[in-house]
Every structure is written in structure tokens, then in C-alpha cells.
Specification:
mainly alpha; 2 domains; elongated; single chain
Amino acid sequence: MSATSVPRLILKPTFPLDQNEIERRCRAERISHPITWGSILGAAILPWLATDGVFPALFGMMVCFGFAALGISIFWSGKQQEITSKVVEEMISESNAEQDRRLSKIVAQYRGRGMHHYATALGKFLLLKQNIEKRLHPGGQVTEMSEQIERLVDSLCANVCREFDKVAELDRQLGDVLISGEKARLESLQSDRTEVLEAIMQAYGTIYETLDSVVDFDDTGELVPELKSGEPNPETGLTDAVSSLKKEIEMAKRIRDRLHIPDADAEDADFQAFETDRKLDAGQ
């Protein structure tokens, strides 16, 4: 394929989550809870109300602070998993929202440039991404498989953005070559454009199948097999991202079969329209 302008990665992957940020938020959550500040405030005030004199009050404060610290420690020892899950859910939601905001901005840019067909197609990727992520980590529960799937979906969407940038640049070059009389160059650009569109179409089919095959299975620990593949590199090409995601889909399908989960309807009018556009472009 001829060289085209490829932008750097515009989506920050959700995973891995920042463990220091998780701990900071958990700590802030504990401090801001009424049980924590209420106990400390009570330990500081009650001795002054219940005793006469400075020294008895100070001694009472020391005793109350000790009991308050013990009570707070016991209370939060049983709440740690709940707090962590809440924080993780918030961080995942914030990351996904930022990704969606940036993708929506790109969709708007394509629409503003008059490339409504690309805006519609990329918007459909965004909708599927949102549907997958909405159901992938229920209640902040992150399994090894759900994390891997989200990594791959993020990588696929980032690579799809680069492919759309490629095809937009090819469209610009096609506009220039139409008045140049360079037939060989025209054929080369058309071939390159078809190749990019086919890659995007395959990626769309894969992410649609992900929604159909992955997010409906139960996240029971014993049914989630250990993943052997390495962490996806967000800078890899679209083909690699699609291939990795397909492997995870096959794994999820086997789990679906064991859980007897029925298949969802995979028909999609927008995808059919995009396939028709690709065939027309290829002269099929």
C-alpha cells in the first residue's frame, strides 16, 4: 500500500489501571465516609461534654480515639472489596467516557468535512464499543478475560481510527489524480482504498461478533480459562488487533456453549450498507 499519513494513537487504553490511583481513591472514599469522620468527630467532642476539667477530657479523648480507630478499622476491613470494586468501576467508566468523547469528536470532524459515510461507519464502531464495555465489567468486577477483551477492543478501535485516516487521505489523493491523466496511479490508489475498506469491514464484523459472543456469558471464575496470549500492543496494525480479538471470541464461544447461551441476532443494516459501498468501490 502506498504511504499515507497515519496519526499517532488517539485513544488511551483503559487497562492497565493505575494501582496508585486506585489506592488513592479508596483512601479518599474511606476518609470521606460518615463512619470515619463521624467517629473521629465524636471521639474529639464527647469527652469534653461528658467530663469536667481539661485533663479528664484529654484522657477521655485518647481513649475515645483508640476505640474509634479500632471501630473504623474493623468496619473498613469488611468493606475493602466493595470500595475497591466501586473505585475500579468509576475509573473504567471515566476512561471509557474519555475514549467515547474523542471518538465522537473524530466522527464530528468527518461529518464536518462532508465525509458522512465515514462518520456513520465510525459512529457505529463507537456504539458497539459502548455496548460491549457497558456489560463487560458488571459492578466493577474485572476478570482476566474481560480485561483482555477490553484491551483488544481499545486496540481495534484505535487502529480503525488510523485506517479511516488512511482512506480519507486516499480519497484526497484520488481527487487530485482524477485530473492528472495518470491511469496507473489511479488504479493503485483505488486498490489501496479497497484494501483499507476491506480491513475496516472485517474489523466491524469482528467487533460486532464480540458483542454477540462475549458479553452475554456469566463471569464465573471457574469457567474463565487462563489466557495464554500476551498483552496487546496498541501500536500494532488493525489486522493483528482483529486476529487477537477473534481468538478471544472463539474462547468465549466455547464458554457460551457450556452455558447454553442462545445466539443473538447478528443482522445489521449499517454493516450491509458499508459492505455494499465496498463492493461498489471494488467494481464487483
